[in-house]
Amino acid sequence: MTQIYRCQLELHDSLYFATREIGRLYETEPILHNYALCYALGFVDNPRYQTQVNPEEEYRYFCRHQVPQYQAHLTKLNEQKIYVTPARSLRHTAVLNTWKYADNRYHVEMQKTQKNIPSFGRAKEIAPESQFEFFVISEQAIQFPQWIRLGKWMSKAKLDVNTLENVQRHSNQTFTVSYPLNPLDVMFGHEVIQFDTINMPPVSLIRNVKLRGDSYRMSLRDGTVYLPANMTYQFQP
User: What is the pairing mode between strands 155-163 and 147-150?
Assistant: First the structure.
C-alpha cells in the first residue's frame, strides 16, 4: 500500500549550495533538489534501503572520489519504491556573507598567482529558521531521522513528518502541481502541458506544472494538493 509522508524542515544553520554563480556572487536558490534530499535523509548509504553498501562509497558526510553517482545510487531507491520530491520554501530569509583568501606570509615578495583562484567572493545563503516542505512516496513504512544535514556546510535541520491519510488516486486526469518537480521523473508516464523552469544543477526543476496522467489527491488543512503518481528516478542518457 502506497504511503505518502508530508515532511517539513526547519533550518538551524545557514544553508549554502551554489545554485548559480554570477561573477563573484554564489547564490543559493530557496528550493531543495530531490537528489540532495535523498542523501540527507540517509536513503543512499543506509542498509535498510540499500543492499550491499560499500563503506568506501558512503556519501552522507564524506565523498571520497568527488564524482556523482546519482544513477547508481537512486536506481536502488526505484527498486525499493521510494521517491522523494524536491522541497519548496514555506518561508525563508537570506543572508549575504563575504569570504576572502588571505596570505599570512610577511616580508616576502608579492607575486601574481599562477592559479585561477578567486581572492574574494560573496555567498548568498538561506538563513536559520527558514522552513521547507516536501513529500516522500513509499511502498513501505519509513523511519525518519529527527535531524538531518544539508548543503556544502552540512547545515543542521530539524525534520517533522506526518503520514497522510485518505489519499485518493485518480487516473488520466488533468491537474496542477504547485510544488517543484523533477522533469525527468515526471515526463515518464505523464503529459506535461505547461510549467515554469528553475535552473539549477544537476537537473533543472519545474514548478506550477500543469500535466495529464495519474495523480494522488490529498486534502490538507491548508488546501487540496495533487502529486503525480508513478514517479521514479530517471536519468539523461
Answer: antiparallel
Give residue 231's identity as a one-letter amino acid code.
Answer: M
User: Cβ distance 233 to 75 under 8 Å?
Assistant: yes
**Side-by-side strand order, sheet with 120-126:** 20-22, 25-27, 120-126, 94-100
**Total domains in the fold of the chain:** 1
In a domain, 7, yes or no: yes
List 213's β-bridge partners, or say none: 173
Run of H or E including 95: strand 94-100
Q: Which domain holds residue 78?
A: 3-95+121-228
Are residues 143 and 40 in contact, defined by beta-carbon separation less than 8 angstroms? no
**Which are the contacts of 224, defined by CB distance < 8 A and separation ≥ 6?**
217, 218
- Is this structure's pTM higher than 0.70? yes
| CATH classification at residue 12 | 3.30.70
Phi-psi region of 229 (alpha: psi -120 to 50; beta: other; left: phi over 0): beta
DSSP 55: G
Q: Is residue 106 part of a domain?
A: no
Check: CB of residue 32 under 8 Å from CB of residue 182. no
Strands 25-27 and 94-100, bridge-based pairing? unpaired
Asked if residue 174 is part of any domain, the answer here is yes
Residue-by-residue pLDDT tens, the chain, 237 positions: 789 999 999 999 999 998 888 888 889 999 999 999 999 999 987 666 555 545 445 555 566 666 788 898 899 999 999 999 999 999 999 999 887 766 555 545 555 555 555 567 889 999 999 999 999 999 999 999 999 999 989 999 999 999 998 899 999 999 999 999 999 999 888 999 999 999 998 999 999 999 999 999 998 888 899 999 999 999 987
